[in-house]
Amino acid sequence: MRNSGNLLLASLSESDAEALRPHLISVHLDHERVLFEAGDEVTHIYFPTGAIVSHVVGLSSGEIIEAAMVGKDGVVGAFAALGGNIPVNRAIVQLAGPALMCKVSELRSAVLQSQSLLSTLFRHEQTVYSQASQSAACMAAHMVEARLCRWLLRARDLAGTDNLHFTQEFLAEMLGVKRTSVTLHARTLQQAGMIRYSRGLIQITDVEALQETVCECYGTVKSYYHALLGPHPV
After folding, report:
1. Tell me: the pLDDT tens digits for 80-105?
2. Statement: the pTM of the whole predicted model exceeds 0.85
3. Is residue 80 classed exposed, middle or buried when 0-12, 13-18 and 19+ CB atoms within 10 A define those classes?
4. Taking the CB of the first residue and of the last residue of the chain, which one, N or C, has fewer CB atoms within 10 A?
């Protein structure tokens, strides 16, 4: 599926791609749509081709904090086809866009017939776990400005554009901080010429400067993807 728009699908062997192709349906995922909740049964699996999905942890206070971000480099909900159909977090669309969708039962049937597909999905789930682990360490050890840079660069990689349609409220939720904190640090980045910000739109204007400001976690997560899934363009 070289032209599917999803790098994970594009990496599959021809036989694995043929097994999945009849079951994939093109869908549009709207901003803030919840694909599944923690503890619920997952019914569908999504391969983003333009959308970006966040795995978030909800707290009793009502706060949510992002654990991992998946876009055109991966798949959302694959664990359900591997025998573990109990999500431990919520999957919410952070950037609207297209995706390919299939039923859990259909992906499970394909996995049972292919060791190579099983291996690919297991390695992908490892990358999501490693990203969540790195995010936990990042929140505990790094300053908000560096974390904001990491989030913006990761979103830019997956969106394939310097123009990101996010509000400060949404960014604050994903980073687990107050909106005023995001406002302060976004203003600092804007004054330094790294971004331009207007209501609901962040434009990255100096990628190299962001990469110099970002914490080590951005590069670490990319290295995990490279080691487990190969040298994706993102």
Report:
1. 999 878 899 999 999 999 999 999 99
2. yes
3. buried
4. C
